[in-house]
Amino acid sequence: MSMQTANKTSLMDNLRSRLEGVNLRQNGIFLALIGLLIFFAATTPGAASLTPDNVSNLVMQNGYILVLAIGMVMVIIAGHIDLSVGSVACFIGAVAGIFVCRPLEQDGWDWLPAMPWYIGILAAIVVGAIVGVWQGFWVAYVGIPAFIVTLAGMLIFRGLALMTLQNSNIGPFPDEFRAIGNGFLDKENALGLSIGLPADMNAMALILTAVGILALWLRELTTRRGRVKYGQPTEPVIWFLVKNIFLSLMVAGAGYQLAQANGIPYLLLLMIFLIVVYSLVMNKTTFGRHIYAIGGNLNAAMLSGINVRRVNFWLFVNMGALAALSGILITARMNSAVPKAGDGFELDAISSVFIGGAAVQGGVGTVTGSMVGGMIQGILANGMNLNSVGIDSQMFIKGLVLLFAVAFDVWSKRRK
Predict the structure, then answer these.
(1) Domain shared by 159 and 254, yes or no
(2) Residues with Cβ < 8 Å from 214, sequence gap 6 or more?
């Protein structure tokens, strides 16, 4: 071995030892998110991507995709895919319209009394779960591949949506229903005015932002302490500090901008709740560990006694319920149930999951990673719109981003 080759090997070994414990896949998408924020801040006219109204709109416009991405990452980790979520979201939006509004011009529904808005939402989510029962039965107990079942579901539930809507729109919805997709916590800033803050500085948004940053540090420090306790690889201290300082600055910046707009959207609070709950499910429960085991090695999971059929069944029930919630959110956002709702949602959700670091073969992925992947897509689309990039170029760029994200996953697996 030549001296040059030995030096090169030594440098690579040194680099690997320094990066031991660093999740290159997850940290790579985090750096990509920061890079996009900086790029569009510099290129959009008057840094329009960072204005309070644009940050608020960015959250509101991507919430329903992020809800789908939470369910989709669980499905993909288990080695499946769901192509029907956009159609299911449209169908459940129509169902919510019938339950809550029941306009008289919708022939055949005059027997059904209009429900209170909250009962209508719960009933629509139950219908979504029933859709998941239907698809989970074919996947888990009949053994038809999820790709085929959900491809059929994409057609079936789009057709049912059109039948339910009778090719027309349903709306408007009650104000309480609309607030789910358009409302803000303490929009009038009563708390801020009572303590002497300016009218355009929402106190509740500032308080929740501070709480979020403290929770972030508590979670990261607790996780690091646990890894050290059990002798697992940990990130270098410098990397750990720099990463979390940047993340805290991003949260602080977003919270400050929201405080200058209308405050914290109810949709953002719902998203935070879902992220926390599903992260706990995936990381701390037997069900979550079974999902990873099935996607990582199906034969080993079966031999270890995991009831694979039951896990797969409940995965699709959960996906149906989350698709229903997404349909309710987009309906509330638009204040109308429309036949074209949900078009392309399945592609956006799947792209968010893969950009967020999930493996094509299954067994790898996180809820938070899929959220970052969804925000990357949202920021990319928003920035290109602000820069007046044509829809043809936008589709081309989004396709490249997805391709490179999956290519990076394949490369990292081969490197190992």
Answers:
(1) no
(2) none
How far is residue 346's CA from residue 80's CA, in Å, rounded to a whole number?
13
Both 147 and 249 in one domain: the answer is no
Whether 12 is in a domain gets the answer no
Q: Which of 37, 130, 44, 21 is nearest to 387 (CA)?
A: 44
Structural domain includes residue 14: no
Tell me the pTM.
0.87
Domain of residue 35 covers 24-39+47-183+265-415
Q: Would you state the pLDDT for residue 362?
A: 83
* Largest CA-CA distance found in the chain, in angstroms, rounded: 86
Residue 85 confidence (pLDDT): 93
Nearest alpha carbon to residue 220 among 250, 239, 237, 240: 240
Note the pLDDT of residue 327: 92
Q: Which of 264, 291, 326 is the last residue of a domain?
A: 264
Q: Please count the structural domains in the chain.
A: 2
Residue labelled with tokens 């919805």:
173
Q: Which residues of the chain have pLDDT under 50?
A: 1, 6, 8, 11-12, 15
Q: Characterize 85-98 residue by residue with b for buried, 16 or more Cβ atoms within 10 angstroms of its Cβ, and e for exposed.
A: bbbbbbbbbbbbbb
Has residue 3 been placed in a domain?
no
Q: Which two tokens stand for residue 121?
A: 């939402």
pLDDT at 261: 85
Is 244 domain-assigned?
A: yes
Cβ burial, residue 230 (10 Å; 0-12/13-18/19+): exposed
CA 366 vs CA 136, 175, 211, 223, 356: distances in Å: 22, 35, 23, 15, 8
